[in-house]
Amino acid sequence: MRRSHYHAGDSHACECVADCELAARRRRAKRVLLNSRLLDEDATVLASVIAHELQHARDYEQIRLGALSPDCTELEVRAFEAQSRTWRTLWPAELPTTTQVEQDLTRVSLVYDANGVEGLRRMVAGAAFYQRECASRDAA
Ligand SMILES: [Zn+2]
C-alpha cells in the first residue's frame, strides 16, 4: 500500500522514502503522490515539495541505470537540496512561516543556507525517522 508522499522537513520526515524506493524497485516510480492537505497551501509550497519528489524520481531512474548509488541518506540530502533551492528561489527575501509546512520548508532552507549540503547531511543523519528507515533498508 502506498502511503502519502507528504514530507517537507525533518519533523514530518520523509514518509515517501520507503515507498519511493519500493516503487523504484518495482520499476513503476512514474507518479508523484502528494497529500491532499497540500492543496490548501500556497503554490510555492507545492512547487518546492514537487521539486523534492522530482529529484527522487530522477535519482531512482539513475539508480535503476546503475549511475547512482542507492544511499538512503544521500538521496534525502539531494532531495532536500532541490527543495530548498526551489523554496529559496521563490522567496529570495524573507521565507514564509505561516503554515506548518511553510515552517518545515523554511527550517530546511535555513539549514541549507547556513551549511549547504553538509548541513542537510547532518540534519538527515540526525533525524530519528531516517535512522530507522535507513537502518531497516540497509538490513534488507
Ligand atoms: Zn524524500
Give the helices and strands, then pairings.
Blueprint: H1 16-25, H2 43-64, H3 72-90, H4 100-126, H5 128-139
This protein binds zinc ion (ZN).
Zinc ion (ZN) binds next to helix 1, helix 2 and helix 3.
Characterise the protein shown here.
The chain has 140 residues and is mainly α. The chain has one domain (3-139). Helices cover 64% and strands 0% of the residues. Helix 3 packs antiparallel against helix 4. The longest helix has 27 residues, at 100-126. Zinc ion binds at residues 7, 14, 16-17, 52, 56, 76, 79.
Q: Keywords for this structure?
A:
single chain, about 140 residues, mainly alpha, about 0% strand, disordered N terminus, binds zinc ion
Q: What does the radius of gyration come to?
A: 14 Å
Q: Could you report the average pLDDT, rounded to the nearest whole number?
A: 80
Major beta-sheet overview:
none
As for the number of domains, it is 1
Name the structural class. Answer: mainly alpha
- Count of beta strands: 0
The stretches of 5 or more residues where confidence is low (pLDDT under 50) are 1-27
List the helices and strands in order. HHHHH
Q: State the helix count.
A: 5
Distance between the termini: 18 Å
Question: What small molecules does this complex bind?
Answer: zinc ion
Amount of helix: 55-70%
Morphology call: globular
Strand content: under 5%
Brief account:
The protein is mostly helical. It has five helices and no strands.
